[in-house]
Model the fold of this input.
Amino acid sequence: MHTLIILGSPRKNGNSETLARSVASGIEQHPEATVEFIRLNDLQLSACQGCGGCNKSSTCVITDDMTPLYEKVDSCDHLLLVSPIYFYGLSAQCKTFVDRFQARWARKYLSGIRFRQDEERQGTLLATAATEGKKIFDGALLTAHTLFDALDLKNGEPLLVRGVDYFGAMQKQTLILEQAMALGRRIAGGRS
Ligand SMILES: Cc1cc2nc3c(=O)[nH]c(=O)nc-3n(C[C@H](O)[C@H](O)[C@H](O)COP(=O)(O)O)c2cc1C
Done:
């Protein structure tokens, strides 16, 4: 079982990454589980140009650091999308990554190609936000769910943390980090 973890914050070792690393350590307790991190902020990703090039070929016509990520996402068993909340939505890095999957949306809905529909394949959103707002994760959840649908990934149980803002705040949330590790164990055991 291979989990691909997409880190969407520009802050290295920030709150959302700290959360993701706890989930990863739970996953890695399973002897057959493997984990790979991708830090979007280190990559050169063009925004989707809405050119329609993928409508027929189901392939993005832009060649950049996103190109190898399509194959990585296609071949993983579990995708973790990890983002800080920016203005009630995903970070720009995450949103750019998501939009480039228009090519996969086109493959599924325009070409009718269903690539993998293994029951166990899942996508999960991990997100952190500074405030306690009731709707603070709604935008990010909708975007993540739309992505997971395009990729034929089952919606995994999200882990959403309110009230963490300054750098290092997440490290003090020991209870939540334990919950994150438990989520990782469930993901690796196929029960999340
Ligand atoms: C540009 C920007 C926009 C933000 N917008 C929100 C917001 O709308 N609501 C909120 O609760 N927190 C907001 N935050 C705070 C971050 O979501 C919060 O600090 C998060 O835990 C940062 O995670 P990170 O350390 O992984 O980057 C914003 C932060 C930045 C830099």
In short: Residues 2-188 form a domain with the Rossmann fold fold (CATH 3.40.50.360). The pocket of flavin mononucleotide is lined by residues 9, 11, 14-17, 84-88, 128-131, 136, 164-165 (CB under 6 Å). The chain has seven helices and six strands.
